[in-house]
Amino acid sequence: MNKRFYVTTAIDYVNGQPHLGHAYEKVIADVVARARRCLGEPVFFLTGLDEHGQKVQLAAQAEGKTPSEYCDGLALAWRQFAQKLGLSNDDFVRTTEPRHKAVVQAILSRLHAEGRFYKKTHRGFYSTTVESFLTEKDRLPDGSFDPAYGKVIELEEENYYFKLREHQQWLMDYIEANPAFIAPEPRRNEILGFLKNNELEDLCISRPAARLNWGIPLPFDPLFVTYVWFDALLNYISIPAAHGDAGVLSALVSQLTAEENGRLLSCLHSQPATPQSAIELWPADVQVIGKDILKFHAVFWPIMLKAMGLPLPRQILVHGWWQKDGEKLSKSTGNVVDPVAVIDEWGLDAFRYYVIRELDIGPDGNWTDAGFRSRYQAELANGLGNLVNSSLSMIKRYRAGRVPHGAHQLAAEVSECRARVLACYRDHRLQDALLAIAALITRANQYIDQTSPFKLAKDPAQAARLDDILYTLAEVCRALGVLLWPVIPGTAEKLQRQLGFPAAAANLSEQAPPIATGHELGDIFPLFPRKES
Ligand code: MSP
Description:
Bound molecules: 5'-O-[(L-methionyl)-sulphamoyl]adenosine
Number of strands: 17
């Protein structure tokens, strides 16, 4: 078995520029992926772009471009954004790629052949902004529709629908029986409440090609294209298929004609996967999404998977939304946080640290520039930065840069912290991991204050006591360089190098042997330059 720990993010709509919300979600997934790698698990981390739909078609038209030219231009910027965030993703999916489209069509063919879809005419109010029909429940008390729906028109349209209703009880039972499936708990309760109080409406899976042609054609009726969710959600399995995941591939080919099968395989084989490099990815271990797309992931997606005969992901991990200064992020009002500008000014790790430390996965958060600056000064520059700088400077100054032989006086604290951080990483409690690490940093800074190594250094009779302190501090710094690596890998590597260890020493799965007596430090420099505000 070659199963990898498989972590995914929502794929972002390609129209528009990346913002704090997109960055936050991708950093969460990256930390989860990096933590698992440090724990010695093979990992596959997928992120990417959702490129079809009416908005893209219209935005391209407005710029006088074809949709595919428009998407290619923006995809480049989004890929650069992923690099800017330091993401360690193993693949980057674009829903316009042949490898994805082939899988979507194969699944549609199969589900159609098995009678999972039906066609019907629907007349109702259609929101051009969210690209879907509204129901009576979407009306405000005064009978109008929320302005967020944009222009609402009356429309009569024939479309294909996916049968959901018959699976409602099964899904409730599944969620009840698998408490970790939707996390955190309030989101699970929200979905259970929704399922208990509403009868599921079947899911519309198409749009007439005459109205929207920027989509994947339905293989069984070319007058229609696939509506975005039946296209976008499938990225989570199309990429495993492209990498040769046998479970997903067998679900795809079971109902295909020889011709369809040949077409599918030729698209997938354009990918690097060979039988030897084939890997097993599905089911995903964790799918990170924002609260607004919970229903798609916790209701429609599980039912689609069940229809395909595939297992459900182990966890849907739902984060909250960021605001800035207590207001919704909005390009039109200028209330935005540009992650790229923050990273350029403060450094990538300051950004990554702040979003994970400030906002637990679940509730909504509020970005303030003052809050960001104050955490940077207090926790990074003063807390971690000071500890490392003063510890290593003392070893340089008092012991010529060589770690002395001594007793590890904080061994119990380090070991307890390590156990807590590992448990947090395994449970995706990333903020708690940073809190446990922050407690160790505070403890070590107090230890310096209490033991006063600066004073001891003046008295040769205290050399043995000073050795213990310096050795202890070197060990604490080394532990921090490993424990912090998933969240702030650049800083962790710098710390390791300053300690004289190769940068690749971030292994959480086993405790490192004690630092050898006489081990030589590298060059030291401040990890977080102090900023004048
Ligand atoms: N394309 C769909 C997802 C398809 S997944 C098969 C989509 N795209 S999106 O660009 O609108 O949003 C991408 C992710 O960013 C979502 O998980 C969404 O919740 C998240 N965020 C968008 N704005 C956000 C904030 N203000 N704060 C935090 N996350 C937010 O939905």
